[in-house]
Amino acid sequence: MPAQITPFHHAPTGSWTYVVVDPETRAAAIIDPVLDYDWRSGRSGTASADAVIAHCQGAGGQLRWILETHAHADHLSAAQHLRERLGGQVAIGRGILEVQRTFRRIFGLGPEFAADGSDFDRLLADGDLLPLGDLGIRVLPVPGHTSDSVAYRIDDALFVGDTIFMPDSGTARCDFPGGNAALLYRSVHTLYALPPATRVFVCHDYSPGGRAPRCETSIGEQRAANIHLRDGVTEEAFVQMRLARDATLDVPNLLLPAVQVNIRAGKFPSAEADGVSYLRVPLNVVGRPL
Ligand SMILES: [Fe+2]
Fold this sequence. Notes:
The protein is an alpha/beta fold.
């Protein structure tokens, strides 16, 4: 029987979270869970993640995996909240080691942040196959947007993270530290080599033109119609387009808080002597000069 896939849209950040359940054994995985966060006040909340938890419990799911497609820069991960409530292992691509080292430097973090991947329960390598009851989750590295990006393939469903978006939205930016447009081009083509009927589930949708948010397309649709990267677009043309477009994009609203939490697998920095956890803001380091 095919995997049961339930999408959850997080409107404030345009993010999609997925619950995947094996119908035979009820083994479940949750991909890219979102923690609510108000950057003005520094307050976090779990209402969105709790809706995902309620669905998983209602479906009788036994959570095995909490999977990140990469260390997101636009939302904070709810991985630790899910892990506390439902169990399961938090996993991400091995490229997180490079991402952790990069951002340890950018945020001036000291030895309290090991940057050795140990905040995660499992680091994933190319070709790893994670058991999900009678199903398997195949890990496909797709660097380019970030160096830790991976896609997850479960039966005919492919969770692509920030590589390609819906066909009318194109592809992910490549201007974060560790980003590389040529690498993204090659990564997307490894996905485009999969059968055209493969169902593609995207990580974000920003409702271009005011249409309703969408989360599912297919490899065939992407190859025919992706506005940035359809069949016939050369690597050179793609890289030029991506570099030009990235030069116009603002830093994401939540980049500074999101990255600091997400490189720790969704954990907040250790509380200081007053019992409060603090995030850092490196002045005049990130983004374009004003
Ligand atoms: Fe991203």
